[in-house]
Amino acid sequence: MSGGEGREAISQRQLPLDLRLRDTSRFVGFYPGGNLLARDAVEALAVGAGMTESQILLHGPPGTGKTHLLQAACHQGHERGEPVGYLPLAEVADAPPLTVLDGLERARLVALDDLDSVVGQGDWDEALFGLLNRLRDGGCRVLLAATHAPEGLGSRLPDLTSRLAWGPVFRMQIPEEADLKRILAQRAVLRGLELPEAVAEYLLRHYRRDLVALLELLDRLDLAALAEQRRLTIPFVRDQLARS
Protein backbone atom coordinates (compact mmCIF):
# COMPACT_ATOMS: atom_id res chain seq x y z
CA MET A 1 0.00 0.00 0.00
CA SER A 2 1.42 3.37 -0.95
CA GLY A 3 1.48 6.32 1.41
CA GLY A 4 -1.46 7.93 -0.40
CA GLU A 5 -3.51 4.76 -0.24
CA GLY A 6 -2.61 4.41 3.43
CA ARG A 7 -3.90 7.90 4.22
CA GLU A 8 -7.10 7.23 2.26
CA ALA A 9 -7.60 4.01 4.19
CA ILE A 10 -7.13 5.90 7.46
CA SER A 11 -9.74 8.49 6.58
CA GLN A 12 -12.20 5.74 5.69
CA ARG A 13 -11.34 3.41 8.59
CA GLN A 14 -14.20 3.30 11.03
CA LEU A 15 -13.88 2.01 14.54
CA PRO A 16 -14.79 -0.36 16.05
CA LEU A 17 -13.53 -2.88 13.49
CA ASP A 18 -11.02 -2.94 10.70
CA LEU A 19 -12.86 -5.13 8.19
CA ARG A 20 -9.61 -6.42 6.69
CA LEU A 21 -9.36 -9.08 9.37
CA ARG A 22 -8.83 -12.50 7.79
CA ASP A 23 -11.81 -14.72 8.44
CA THR A 24 -9.46 -17.67 9.01
CA SER A 25 -7.69 -15.88 11.87
CA ARG A 26 -9.62 -17.47 14.71
CA PHE A 27 -8.47 -19.10 17.92
CA VAL A 28 -9.94 -22.41 16.78
CA GLY A 29 -7.73 -22.30 13.71
CA PHE A 30 -4.50 -21.63 15.62
CA TYR A 31 -2.24 -24.61 16.27
CA PRO A 32 -0.18 -23.50 19.29
CA GLY A 33 2.82 -25.83 19.20
CA GLY A 34 5.34 -24.13 21.49
CA ASN A 35 3.12 -21.04 21.81
CA LEU A 36 0.41 -22.49 24.02
CA LEU A 37 0.96 -20.06 26.91
CA ALA A 38 0.87 -17.10 24.54
CA ARG A 39 -2.30 -18.35 22.85
CA ASP A 40 -4.06 -18.91 26.16
CA ALA A 41 -3.03 -15.50 27.48
CA VAL A 42 -4.22 -13.68 24.36
CA GLU A 43 -7.53 -15.56 24.36
CA ALA A 44 -8.08 -14.71 28.03
CA LEU A 45 -7.35 -11.05 27.36
CA ALA A 46 -9.71 -11.08 24.36
CA VAL A 47 -12.63 -11.92 26.62
CA GLY A 48 -11.32 -10.10 29.69
CA ALA A 49 -11.22 -13.32 31.70
CA GLY A 50 -9.02 -13.58 34.78
CA MET A 51 -6.54 -11.00 33.55
CA THR A 52 -4.55 -8.99 36.08
CA GLU A 53 -2.71 -7.31 33.19
CA SER A 54 -4.47 -5.47 30.38
CA GLN A 55 -1.59 -5.57 27.87
CA ILE A 56 0.32 -8.35 26.10
CA LEU A 57 3.20 -8.06 23.64
CA LEU A 58 4.12 -10.88 21.26
CA HIS A 59 7.47 -10.87 19.49
CA GLY A 60 9.22 -13.20 17.09
CA PRO A 61 10.00 -13.71 13.41
CA PRO A 62 7.34 -13.80 10.68
CA GLY A 63 5.35 -17.01 10.52
CA THR A 64 5.05 -17.54 14.26
CA GLY A 65 1.37 -16.59 14.51
CA LYS A 66 1.50 -13.08 15.96
CA THR A 67 -0.91 -11.53 13.46
CA HIS A 68 -3.20 -14.57 13.64
CA LEU A 69 -3.59 -14.18 17.41
CA LEU A 70 -4.11 -10.41 17.27
CA GLN A 71 -6.80 -10.79 14.64
CA ALA A 72 -8.41 -13.73 16.46
CA ALA A 73 -8.72 -11.56 19.56
CA CYS A 74 -10.34 -8.79 17.54
CA HIS A 75 -12.80 -11.24 16.01
CA GLN A 76 -13.64 -12.47 19.51
CA GLY A 77 -14.17 -8.99 20.90
CA HIS A 78 -16.26 -7.90 17.92
CA GLU A 79 -18.50 -10.95 18.24
CA ARG A 80 -19.02 -10.04 21.91
CA GLY A 81 -20.31 -6.65 20.77
CA GLU A 82 -17.28 -4.67 21.90
CA PRO A 83 -15.68 -1.84 19.93
CA VAL A 84 -12.31 -3.12 18.79
CA GLY A 85 -9.52 -1.80 16.60
CA TYR A 86 -6.86 -3.71 14.65
CA LEU A 87 -4.13 -1.58 13.11
CA PRO A 88 -1.38 -3.03 10.84
CA LEU A 89 1.21 -0.31 11.34
CA ALA A 90 3.35 -1.40 8.39
CA GLU A 91 0.56 -0.24 6.07
CA VAL A 92 0.32 3.24 7.56
CA ALA A 93 3.91 3.97 8.58
CA ASP A 94 4.20 6.89 6.14
CA ALA A 95 1.08 8.63 7.42
CA PRO A 96 0.98 11.19 10.28
CA PRO A 97 0.87 9.14 13.49
CA LEU A 98 -1.63 11.37 15.30
CA THR A 99 -4.04 10.93 12.38
CA VAL A 100 -3.57 7.16 12.35
CA LEU A 101 -4.00 6.69 16.09
CA ASP A 102 -6.80 9.20 16.61
CA GLY A 103 -9.87 7.70 18.25
CA LEU A 104 -8.40 4.32 19.19
CA GLU A 105 -8.94 5.08 22.86
CA ARG A 106 -12.68 4.72 22.23
CA ALA A 107 -12.20 0.98 21.68
CA ARG A 108 -12.28 -1.65 24.42
CA LEU A 109 -9.70 -3.83 22.69
CA VAL A 110 -6.86 -2.47 20.53
CA ALA A 111 -4.35 -4.57 18.58
CA LEU A 112 -1.28 -2.84 17.15
CA ASP A 113 0.61 -5.05 14.69
CA ASP A 114 4.05 -4.55 13.09
CA LEU A 115 5.43 -2.19 15.75
CA ASP A 116 8.88 -2.52 14.16
CA SER A 117 7.63 -0.45 11.23
CA VAL A 118 7.23 2.72 13.27
CA VAL A 119 9.07 2.47 16.59
CA GLY A 120 12.29 4.48 16.48
CA GLN A 121 10.75 7.34 14.54
CA GLY A 122 10.47 10.38 16.76
CA ASP A 123 6.88 11.38 15.97
CA TRP A 124 5.67 7.80 16.19
CA ASP A 125 7.43 7.17 19.50
CA GLU A 126 5.75 10.17 21.09
CA ALA A 127 2.35 9.30 19.61
CA LEU A 128 2.51 5.65 20.71
CA PHE A 129 3.63 6.65 24.19
CA GLY A 130 0.65 8.95 24.53
CA LEU A 131 -1.77 6.38 23.11
CA LEU A 132 -0.64 3.59 25.45
CA ASN A 133 -1.09 5.92 28.42
CA ARG A 134 -4.61 6.85 27.29
CA LEU A 135 -5.55 3.22 26.65
CA ARG A 136 -4.35 2.16 30.08
CA ASP A 137 -6.11 5.05 31.79
CA GLY A 138 -9.31 4.16 29.94
CA GLY A 139 -9.21 0.49 30.91
CA CYS A 140 -8.70 -0.68 27.33
CA ARG A 141 -7.16 -4.11 26.68
CA VAL A 142 -4.11 -3.90 24.42
CA LEU A 143 -2.33 -6.42 22.19
CA LEU A 144 1.00 -5.60 20.58
CA ALA A 145 3.13 -7.49 18.06
CA ALA A 146 6.68 -6.94 16.86
CA THR A 147 9.62 -8.86 15.50
CA HIS A 148 11.81 -7.87 18.47
CA ALA A 149 11.28 -7.54 22.19
CA PRO A 150 10.66 -3.99 23.48
CA GLU A 151 14.30 -3.33 24.31
CA GLY A 152 15.33 -4.37 20.79
CA LEU A 153 12.93 -2.11 18.90
CA GLY A 154 15.27 0.88 18.94
CA SER A 155 12.90 3.42 20.44
CA ARG A 156 14.43 6.84 20.99
CA LEU A 157 12.09 7.29 23.93
CA PRO A 158 13.05 5.16 26.97
CA ASP A 159 9.60 5.67 28.48
CA LEU A 160 8.01 4.05 25.40
CA THR A 161 10.24 0.99 25.77
CA SER A 162 9.05 0.76 29.37
CA ARG A 163 5.39 1.13 28.35
CA LEU A 164 5.68 -1.60 25.71
CA ALA A 165 6.79 -4.01 28.43
CA TRP A 166 4.02 -3.07 30.88
CA GLY A 167 2.35 -6.48 30.64
CA PRO A 168 3.43 -10.03 29.79
CA VAL A 169 5.90 -10.32 26.89
CA PHE A 170 5.92 -13.60 24.96
CA ARG A 171 8.61 -14.75 22.54
CA MET A 172 6.80 -16.69 19.83
CA GLN A 173 8.41 -19.96 18.76
CA ILE A 174 9.04 -20.94 15.14
CA PRO A 175 6.97 -24.03 14.26
CA GLU A 176 8.93 -27.27 13.91
CA GLU A 177 8.31 -29.62 10.99
CA ALA A 178 5.74 -31.67 12.87
CA ASP A 179 3.94 -28.45 13.84
CA LEU A 180 3.95 -27.24 10.22
CA LYS A 181 2.32 -30.47 9.08
CA ARG A 182 -0.37 -30.18 11.74
CA ILE A 183 -1.00 -26.52 10.89
CA LEU A 184 -1.34 -27.33 7.18
CA ALA A 185 -3.70 -30.19 7.98
CA GLN A 186 -5.77 -27.93 10.23
CA ARG A 187 -6.02 -25.21 7.57
CA ALA A 188 -7.02 -27.85 5.01
CA VAL A 189 -9.85 -29.06 7.27
CA LEU A 190 -11.09 -25.49 7.73
CA ARG A 191 -11.21 -25.10 3.94
CA GLY A 192 -12.96 -28.45 3.49
CA LEU A 193 -9.87 -29.70 1.67
CA GLU A 194 -8.32 -33.16 1.74
CA LEU A 195 -4.56 -32.89 2.25
CA PRO A 196 -2.89 -36.33 2.30
CA GLU A 197 0.09 -36.56 4.62
CA ALA A 198 2.36 -37.48 1.68
CA VAL A 199 1.38 -34.23 -0.06
CA ALA A 200 2.08 -32.20 3.08
CA GLU A 201 5.52 -33.81 3.34
CA TYR A 202 6.17 -33.04 -0.33
CA LEU A 203 5.33 -29.38 0.25
CA LEU A 204 7.75 -29.19 3.17
CA ARG A 205 10.53 -30.77 1.11
CA HIS A 206 10.05 -28.69 -2.03
CA TYR A 207 8.80 -25.32 -0.78
CA ARG A 208 9.94 -22.70 1.70
CA ARG A 209 9.43 -23.76 5.30
CA ASP A 210 7.86 -20.41 6.05
CA LEU A 211 4.43 -20.76 7.61
CA VAL A 212 2.93 -17.66 6.01
CA ALA A 213 4.16 -18.72 2.55
CA LEU A 214 2.98 -22.30 3.08
CA LEU A 215 -0.52 -21.25 4.08
CA GLU A 216 -0.76 -18.88 1.12
CA LEU A 217 0.41 -21.71 -1.15
CA LEU A 218 -2.20 -24.07 0.31
CA ASP A 219 -4.91 -21.50 -0.37
CA ARG A 220 -3.71 -21.15 -3.99
CA LEU A 221 -3.59 -24.92 -4.43
CA ASP A 222 -7.13 -25.21 -3.12
CA LEU A 223 -8.40 -22.66 -5.66
CA ALA A 224 -6.48 -24.34 -8.50
CA ALA A 225 -7.77 -27.77 -7.55
CA LEU A 226 -11.31 -26.43 -7.45
CA ALA A 227 -10.95 -24.72 -10.84
CA GLU A 228 -9.51 -27.85 -12.47
CA GLN A 229 -11.68 -30.30 -10.53
CA ARG A 230 -8.57 -32.09 -9.26
CA ARG A 231 -7.54 -33.56 -5.95
CA LEU A 232 -4.37 -32.53 -4.14
CA THR A 233 -1.93 -35.16 -5.31
CA ILE A 234 1.85 -34.96 -5.58
CA PRO A 235 1.76 -34.75 -9.42
CA PHE A 236 -0.82 -31.95 -9.25
CA VAL A 237 1.18 -30.03 -6.62
CA ARG A 238 4.42 -30.56 -8.57
CA ASP A 239 2.77 -29.11 -11.66
CA GLN A 240 1.44 -26.09 -9.75
CA LEU A 241 4.83 -25.38 -8.19
CA ALA A 242 6.44 -25.53 -11.64
CA ARG A 243 4.01 -22.84 -12.86
CA SER A 244 4.78 -20.43 -10.04
Question: Structural class of the helices, strands and pairings?
Answer: alpha/beta
Radius of gyration: 19 Å
Helix content: 40-55%
Give helix and strand order, one letter per element, not per position: HHEHEHEHEHEHHHH
Strand order of the largest sheet: 2-3-4-1-5
- Biggest sheet, open or closed, and with what strands and sense? 5 strands, parallel
Structure description:
With 244 residues, the chain is an alpha/beta fold. Helices cover 48% and strands 10% of the residues. It is built from ten helices and five strands, in the order ααβαβαβαβαβαααα. A five-stranded parallel beta sheet has the order 2-3-4-1-5, sandwiched between helices. The longest helix is centred in the last third of the chain and has 18 residues, at 211-228. Mean pLDDT is 87; it is low at 1-19.
What's the gist of this structure?
Helix content is 48%, strand content 10%.
Task: Provide key terms for this protein.
single chain; 244 residues; alpha/beta; five-stranded parallel beta sheet; 10 helices; disordered N terminus
